[in-house]
């Protein structure tokens, strides 16, 4: 099996300057004619052949400057079209004809058809499924695209860039011509043709360019894209304000489709979205969906500069665009909503998704150095840890110098395919600070442990810090890295103390300790009292914190820390440790009481914004608790411990929770942050209170009376998860299904909710759902709802001690793999933490993984994940 290595990177021997594409769409087939303006790169060998990538293509014609190429001057293999004896200098035109069958393309890469709509997905290597090409990100060309299609099936014809011309053709067909003046790599190519509804608007940039905005959806759904349009306009304005980045075409089009492998795609001027991240209204979408739409709309828009104008030299540099763009979308949400709430949500995501990846067999550095299948590297490490690294650069340099570094990056590399080295150099130059110890973060995989010890006597506080990185599955280095550690010293009055530190082996300035070596020490003198040490504020480095701070100090910080993130972290760490203990040895109400009381107090604290109260109230998920348990995890015990803690919390919250529930009932829906926060708080509490009382009636009432999907689904979740056998639950599930039977996005929720319901009959339920007429394995959202809901969100059932949960998932993945390897591979990562299970389950999981690996027709995507999981 071929391994691609960073060290083997070489520029191409040929440049492609222009691409002229004619795409003719017919029922059942597409014909593509590409005219490529090519030139041998000055200095490259005259004898070098040109090897163009191809995948599942049928070559129908081939010409050089209009002359058919003779036999023997080219070869065609399943992966390439290789041309020999091409001109030594000057530009020449290669004309290539191919045919494809979009209707049969279930991989959803290249040109495919979804609900009658033709659309493309080219990242990472999909363009080679449309025509033969140098399908790699460092080959930048301008594109002119003519689409011809039947007008009835496809009145809307879209491609990248600006529209040039359109008109009728014979036989009920028509055409549209598009031109994108910005040189781009092939992975940003897109076209869409279909019968779509549209929502239109416009935006005028700071420089005075009027941009026509349009969001295309399947028929009858455009009223649901109003919020997405609003999010788009806010994103455009924010990028101008915060980063000085303006949009650069006359149109910006978004198309929402039903069948899509990921969330969305940032194709130049023509973003294609999974409709889950566009379509919303209060009756069908939850507050979480609203947040998701806002984030993904912003993320794809921000790629216009970080990804499109400046792209990646090769796929090893993926974090250059993805980590940076996640950082930018996180900052957007922080500015638009609440900084503390957004930071907590990002840290929760990092810990629940990236930490297990970084601590298990799928570990890889933020910039990997080898891969077998690039699609498997769109990971939490590249995206979310990648964003943390950008955040650390901003922390190290401070806001002004960080902005200067970004400005230099945009100025210096606009129109180029860049590397992480290029990026870091901009910050070193503009920031005037060496990032030598920092750049190791990109190369060294794993979550470092930051140990902190404090001693205090006579007004003198000493903080001793040390860092350690264990070598993991990736086998990368373990050198000390530059760790910015934000901190505060909190007095008993709840205010930060002013204290000037002295440091050795570390630097301390502006509330940040810079740990550059393995060990460092910081001393504060003349303190009026022993402070509460609020460490790693803002989660300023993605580390595991080892700080044996007393429970009393942490409970005090959870009440007093003037930094909202610090309050949450102190409490969340205590809750995590308490539940990890319970997951090892069983839940003890007496041991947990002080911590759960603090949780209830956080939930009730009216000085905090509602979303933050909801975050203070939420308990970590079972996956996160299992990670904290560490070794020999029994997922059944973890589940029982968490449920017991929820019920106990409901008892402790008592009257105060009942009041919160009663006060909010009937609040009208609004997507504004405070309203969202109040719903989140009430719905978190609803589960606690219902469990404490062993009574489903509150949830039943909420379900029946809900005026929005957030409250309706939260109530249904309480019923399905905690009262699975009650007749009321069955009736509610049926009613939900019947009400929304024609709505795919809501039906996904119905599948997901049941797949993730932890109870003894869960596997039988999921098997039944897999045979439900509305279950479609070929639709990624539906497959993710059922298989992902079960394998990743239902640890109790997935990890059944008899291994039947594993075997069910293996069967489904093997079937899915034949249709859509990329989605199958992604879902298979649910097995990634199998080594930390107790021995019985560990062996069964390993057996299942080995059985998948031995499957006769296994794809490269799935095999790569399974092999690496087993290594
Ligand atoms: N850059 C996009 C990644 C993506 C993708 C990758 C592989 C296969 C299908 C895909 N669809 C989208 C999304 C993003 O990060 O913005
Ligand atoms: Zn992205």
UniProtKB/TrEMBL annotation:
<dbReference type="InterPro" id="IPR027268">
    <property type="entry name" value="Peptidase_M4/M1_CTD_sf"/>
</dbReference>
<keyword id="KW-0479">Metal-binding</keyword>
<dbReference type="InterPro" id="IPR024601">
    <property type="entry name" value="Peptidase_M1_pepN_C"/>
</dbReference>
<feature type="domain" description="Peptidase M1 alanyl aminopeptidase C-terminal">
    <location>
        <begin position="552"/>
        <end position="871"/>
    </location>
</feature>
<dbReference type="InterPro" id="IPR012779">
    <property type="entry name" value="Peptidase_M1_pepN"/>
</dbReference>
<keyword id="KW-0862">Zinc</keyword>
<feature type="domain" description="Aminopeptidase N-like N-terminal">
    <location>
        <begin position="89"/>
        <end position="188"/>
    </location>
</feature>
<keyword id="KW-0378">Hydrolase</keyword>
<dbReference type="Pfam" id="PF17432">
    <property type="entry name" value="DUF3458_C"/>
</dbReference>
<dbReference type="InterPro" id="IPR001930">
    <property type="entry name" value="Peptidase_M1"/>
</dbReference>
<comment type="similarity">
    <text>Belongs to the peptidase M1 family.</text>
</comment>
<feature type="domain" description="Peptidase M1 alanyl aminopeptidase Ig-like fold">
    <location>
        <begin position="446"/>
        <end position="547"/>
    </location>
</feature>
<keyword id="KW-0645">Protease</keyword>
<dbReference type="Pfam" id="PF11940">
    <property type="entry name" value="DUF3458"/>
</dbReference>
<keyword id="KW-0031">Aminopeptidase</keyword>
<dbReference type="InterPro" id="IPR037144">
    <property type="entry name" value="Peptidase_M1_pepN_C_sf"/>
</dbReference>
<dbReference type="Pfam" id="PF01433">
    <property type="entry name" value="Peptidase_M1"/>
</dbReference>
<dbReference type="InterPro" id="IPR035414">
    <property type="entry name" value="Peptidase_M1_pepN_Ig-like"/>
</dbReference>
<dbReference type="GO" id="GO:0016285">
    <property type="term" value="F:alanyl aminopeptidase activity"/>
</dbReference>
<dbReference type="InterPro" id="IPR042097">
    <property type="entry name" value="Aminopeptidase_N-like_N_sf"/>
</dbReference>
<protein>
    <recommendedName>
        <fullName>Aminopeptidase N</fullName>
        <ecNumber>3.4.11.2</ecNumber>
    </recommendedName>
</protein>
<dbReference type="InterPro" id="IPR045357">
    <property type="entry name" value="Aminopeptidase_N-like_N"/>
</dbReference>
<dbReference type="InterPro" id="IPR014782">
    <property type="entry name" value="Peptidase_M1_dom"/>
</dbReference>
<feature type="domain" description="Peptidase M1 membrane alanine aminopeptidase">
    <location>
        <begin position="227"/>
        <end position="438"/>
    </location>
</feature>
<keyword id="KW-0482">Metalloprotease</keyword>
<dbReference type="Pfam" id="PF17900">
    <property type="entry name" value="Peptidase_M1_N"/>
</dbReference>
<dbReference type="InterPro" id="IPR038438">
    <property type="entry name" value="PepN_Ig-like_sf"/>
</dbReference>
């Amino acid at each position: 099996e071929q391994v691609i290595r960073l060290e083997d990177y070489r520029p191409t021997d040929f440049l492609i300057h222009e691409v002229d594409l004619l795409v003719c769409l017919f029922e059942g087939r597409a014909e593509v004619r590409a005219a490529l303006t090519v030139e041998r790169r000055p200095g490259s060998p005259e004898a070098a052949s040109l090897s163009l990538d191809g995948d599942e293509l049928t070559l129908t014609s081939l010409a050089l400057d209009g002359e058919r190429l003779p036999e023997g001057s080219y070869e065609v293999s399943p992966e390439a079209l290789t041309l020999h004896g091409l001109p030594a200098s000057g530009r020449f035109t290669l004309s290539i004809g191919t045919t494809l069958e979009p209707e049969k393309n279930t991989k959803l890469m290249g040109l495919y058809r979804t609900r009658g709509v033709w659309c493309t997905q080219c990242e990472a290597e999909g363009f080679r499924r449309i025509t033969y090409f140098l399908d790699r990100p460092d080959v930048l060309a301008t594109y002119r695209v003519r689409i011809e299609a039947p007008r009835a099936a496809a009145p809307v014809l879209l491609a990248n860039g600006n529209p040039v011309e359109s008109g009728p053709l014979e036989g009920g067909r028509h055409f549209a011509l598009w031109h994108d003046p910005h040189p781009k790599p092939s992975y940003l190519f897109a076209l869409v043709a279909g019968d779509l509804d549209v929502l239109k608007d416009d935006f005028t940039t700071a420089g005075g360019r009027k941009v026509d905005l349009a969001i295309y959806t399947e028929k009858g759904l455009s009223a649901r894209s109003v919020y997405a349009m609003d999010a788009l306009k806010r994103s455009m304005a924010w990028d101008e304000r915060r980063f000085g980045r303006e949009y650069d075409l006359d149109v910006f089009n978004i198309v929402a489709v039903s069948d899509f492998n990921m969330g969305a795609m940032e194709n130049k001027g023509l973003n294609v979205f999974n409709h889950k991240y566009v379509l919303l209204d209060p009756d069908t979408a939850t507050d979480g969906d609203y947040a998701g739409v806002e984030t993904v709309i912003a993320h794809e828009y921000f790629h216009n500069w970080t990804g499109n104008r400046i792209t990646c030299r090769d796929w090893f540099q993926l974090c250059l665009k993805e980590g940076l763009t996640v950082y930018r979308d996180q900052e957007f949400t922080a500015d638009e909503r609440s900084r503390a709430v957004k930071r907590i949500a990002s840290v929760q995501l990092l810990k629940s998704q990236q930490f297990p990846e970084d601590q298990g067999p799928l570990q890889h550095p933020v910039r990997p150095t080898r891969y077998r299948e690039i699609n498997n590297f769109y990971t939490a490490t590249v995206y979310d840890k990648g964003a943390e690294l950008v955040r650390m650069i901003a922390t190290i340099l401070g806001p002004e110098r960080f902005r200067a570094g970004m400005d230099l990056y945009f100025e210096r590399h606009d129109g180029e395919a860049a590397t992480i080295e290029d990026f870091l150099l901009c910050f070193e130059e503009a920031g005037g600070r060496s990032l030598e110890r920092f750049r190791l973060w990109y190369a060294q995989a794993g979550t470092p442990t930051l140990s902190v010890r404090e001693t205090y006597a006579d007004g003198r506080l000493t903080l001793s810090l040390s860092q350690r990185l264990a070598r993991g599955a990736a086998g990368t280095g373990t050198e000390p890295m530059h760790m910015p550690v934000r901190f505060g010293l909190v007095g008993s009055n709840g205010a930060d103390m002013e204290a000037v530190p002295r440091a050795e082996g570390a630097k301390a300035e502006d509330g940040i300790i810079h740990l550059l070596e393995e060990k460092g020490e910081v001393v504060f003198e003349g303190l009026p009292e022993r402070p509460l040490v609020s460490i790693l504020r803002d989660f300023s480095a993605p580390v595991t914190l080892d700080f044996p701070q007393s429970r009393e100090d942490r409970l005090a910080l959870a009440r007093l820390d003037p930094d909202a993130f610090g309050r949450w972290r102190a409490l969340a760490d205590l809750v995590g440790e308490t539940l990890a203990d319970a997951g090892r040895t069983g839940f003890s109400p007496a041991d947990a009481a002080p911590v759960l009381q603090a949780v209830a107090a956080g939930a009730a604290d009216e000085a905090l914004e509602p979303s933050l109260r909801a975050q203070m109230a939420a308990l970590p998920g079972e996956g996160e608790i299992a990670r904290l348990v560490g070794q020999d995890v029994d997922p059944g015990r973890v589940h029982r411990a968490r449920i017991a803690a929820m019920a106990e919390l409901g008892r402790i919250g008592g009257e105060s929770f009942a009041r919160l529930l009663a006060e909010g009932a009937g609040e009208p829906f609004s997507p504004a942050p405070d309203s969202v926060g109040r719903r989140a708080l009430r719905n978190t509490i609803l589960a606690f209170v219902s469990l404490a009382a062993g009574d489903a009636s509150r949830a039943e009432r909420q379900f029946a009376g809900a005026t929005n999907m957030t409250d309706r689904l939260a109530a249904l979740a309480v019923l399905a998860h905690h009262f699975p056998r009650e007749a009321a639950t069955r009736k509610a599930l049926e009613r939900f299904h019947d009400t929304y039977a024609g709505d795919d996005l809501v039906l996904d929720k119905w599948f997901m909710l049941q797949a993730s319901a932890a109870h003894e009959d869960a596997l039988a339920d999921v098997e039944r759902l897999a045979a439900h007429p509305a279950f479609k394995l070929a639709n990624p959202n539906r497959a993710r709802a059922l298989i992902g809901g079960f394998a990743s969100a239902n640890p109790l059932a997935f990890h059944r001690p008899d291994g039947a949960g594993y075997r069910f998932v293996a069967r489904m993945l093997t079937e899915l793999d034949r249709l859509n390897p990329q989605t199958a591979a992604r879902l298979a990562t649910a097995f990634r933490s199998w080594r930390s299970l107790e021995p019985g389950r560990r062996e069964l999981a390993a057996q299942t993984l080995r059985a998948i690996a031995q499957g006769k027709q296994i794809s490269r995507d799935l095999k790569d994940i399974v092999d690496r999981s087993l290594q």
